[in-house]
Amino acid sequence: MTSIDVTLTEVAASLVLVAIAVAVSRWRRADLEQDLAVAVLRSFVQLTAVGYVIQAIFDSDSLLLVVALLVGMVAFGTFTARARAKGVPNAFGPIALALTVAAVTTLGLVVALGVFEAKPRFLVPVGGMVIGNAMTAAAVALNRLADEVGGARAAIEATLSLGATSRQAASAAVTRSLRSGMITLIDSTKTTGIVFFPGAMTGMLVAGADPLDAVRLQLILLWSLLGSVSLSALIATGLGYRGFFTSAHQLRDAGPR
Amino acid sequence: MRIPDGASALLGPSGSGKSSLLRLLNRLSDPDLGTVHFKGDDVRSLDVLGLRRRAVLVPQLPAPLPGTVADNVRYGPSLFEREADVNSCLGRAGLARTYADRDAGELSVGEQQRVMLARALALEPEVLLLDEPTSALDEVARDGVERTLIELAQAGVAMVLVTHDRGQAVRVASEVLELREGHVVA
Predict the structure, then answer these.
(1) How many domains does chain A have?
(2) How far is Cα A113 from Cα B148, in angstroms, rounded to an integer?
(3) What is the ipTM of this complex?
(4) B184: which of B24, B33, B44, B176 lies 20 to 30 Å off by Cα?
């Protein structure tokens, strides 16, 4: 096991780079100084708080606390994705289910396959990554679904008029939305290591780990995320499309966005 | 109001509720008040997918599915695990057999509207619901599609034609109902 000490002085020193961002914003009148201040403050408070929470969970070594934390992440992720995908009626249930299934399946599989031990120090960070990526995928896919359905109302109703079910009428839109929810991670997985170093690998390298270990861990994470993101987008779109239809296979009137 | 058998036309200016009425007949929408009956049955008591196969709506603007003309004609019957006689449907809609393998998306609007007709006929519906089927067409295409509608009506195909064109209503339909502000006036 490797570990490093990071002092608050070192953290404070990195504020010099934030100062550059502030200077750029001032010089080009981008009016981002206040946002930068909020961002720095929030990241400090949020990460410090979560650091103490994780420390407490690690110290207690209680899987129950891990589950409670993951449930909290799923709940927060669901609300966030719901707010981002406003155009989809009744999206809360599909998003909650998407994030839950993505988290449970992914974590369950990596533990069952012996990739990680069922310990807080693995489950918490990996769970956070899985749920965060699943949330983004669900939100992106559902946003796209709202655009697809909104732009193809006439075609969808024409298909319904031939006796198609709402599932059949929406299937092209659902497929395109699923793709858009998955494609970002697939693309970044393709370019990983060339254009950017992913976070986990960077962290391990900085912490002094063997580069090959860092790479292997990163591969495990990236490949696991592909699975969880696809599950999330699949469930979110596969159930989310129903919000646009009545039980009588009628396309609902376009509501306020 | 009662729409008789055979070929009927609903005539009225835009905003008079003709298209909305048509959508009630195949339950693309439900009315806020009142009931809609199809051949004596409340449409809400019928299987909605079966109803839409019996009363097929042809939209105002053609909405072809991706693929060839034949793919479009086969789509409706395929939902019910049935085969379509593509050539016969094309012929009844006034399209030559050579259209079958053409990309439906690349046809003119007038040709696409005929594909919509062929696609609807492939379901062998009891009634065609036609929502201003010629309003998006130029004069030549409009006359051609209208002639096809007259032929279908004469061949005994039941239809409800929604139009704002009184001349067309009279030429195609044997019964003309006039709507104004959501009410039947004649």
Answers:
(1) 2
(2) 66
(3) 0.91
(4) B44
Q: Which of residues 128-147 of A touch B (CB under 8 A)?
A: none
Judgement on whether residues A35 and A75 belong to the same structural domain of the protein: no
Of the candidates B128, B135, B137, B181, the residue with the CA atom closest to the CA atom of residue B8: B128
Quick: pLDDT tens for A112-171.
Answer: 999 999 999 999 999 999 999 999 999 999 999 999 999 999 999 999 999 999 999 999
CATH superfamily of B7-184: P-loop containing nucleotide triphosphate hydrolases (3.40.50.300)
* pLDDT tens figures, A2-11: 467 889 999 9
Of A154, A161, A251, the CB nearest to B52: A161
pLDDT above 50: residue A40 = yes
Long-range pairs of B164-171 with CB within 8 A, sequence gap ≥ 24: B164/B11, B164/B12, B164/B13, B164/B14, B164/B18, B164/B132, B164/B135, B165/B134, B166/B11, B168/B9, B168/B134, B169/B9, B169/B11, B170/B9, B171/B146
Q: Which residues of chain B have pLDDT under 70?
A: 186
- For A249, which of B49, B53, B65 is closest by C-beta distance? B49
Print the domain residue range for A227.
Answer: 62-244
